[in-house]
Specification:
Helix content is 32%, strand content 22%. By secondary structure, it is α+β, with helices and mostly antiparallel strands. The chain has one domain: 3-Layer(aba) Sandwich (Glutaredoxin). It has a 6-stranded mixed beta sheet with strand order 1-2-4-3-5-6, with helices on one face. The longest helix is centred in the middle third of the chain and has 16 residues.
């Protein structure tokens, strides 16, 4: 019985459950997300138009990326974004399309939605030094190896490749 109770307690913790909510942006009156989500949440009617438009219309540089598929093995990517932010609305769907092309495992991708103060539901952004969104952070062996902040320096693909080369 103790083992069963222990397992029931651990499942929600180890399951990395998504905890998020929709709130109203008091400046614009539109709904925004805060908290941790999967990419499926962007299919909600309040977010799908901008997400699907950018995802569908973006042309991934497959020639460049095809040489780097194996370089993402063992990496974790954390994206801090604001569904209220035009840069996030443009860059995040595009980056997710890149990750889909690379067959990046969804369980290695953490999407943290923040409000206009760059805060999530709890302490998801604590210690990340987030000033601008989106901020895409790549980790290897638990250590940060690079970031793409707000907009790419060159292109999303080239910036990602430069991070993976380090």
């Amino acid at each position: 019985m103790k083992v069963l109770l222990f397992c029931l307690f651990l499942i929600p913790i180890l399951g990395f459950g998504q905890e998020y909510k929709k709130i109203i942006n008091t400046n614009t009156g539109e709904k925004i997300l805060i908290g941790i989500t999967s990419k499926k949440v962007y299919q909600d009617k309040d977010f799908s138009e901008w997400f699907n438009n950018e995802y569908t219309n973006y042309k991934v540089d497959t020639d460049l990326l095809s040489h780097y598929k194996d370089k993402l093995e063992g990496k974790v990517i954390r994206i801090v974004l604001g569904t209220w932010c035009s840069d996030s609305r443009r860059e995040v769907p595009r980056f997710i399309k890149i990750l889909d092309f690379l067959d990046f495992p969804e369980d290695k991708l953490l999407l943290i939605n923040v409000d206009t103060e760059k805060k999530g539901l709890s302490d998801e952004t604590e210690g990340l030094n987030i000033e601008f969104v989106p901020t895409i952070i790549v980790y290897s062996s638990g250590k940060e190896i690079g970031r793409i902040i707000e907009t790419p320096i060159e292109t999303l693909e080239k910036d990602l490749v430069n991070i993976l080369k380090n």
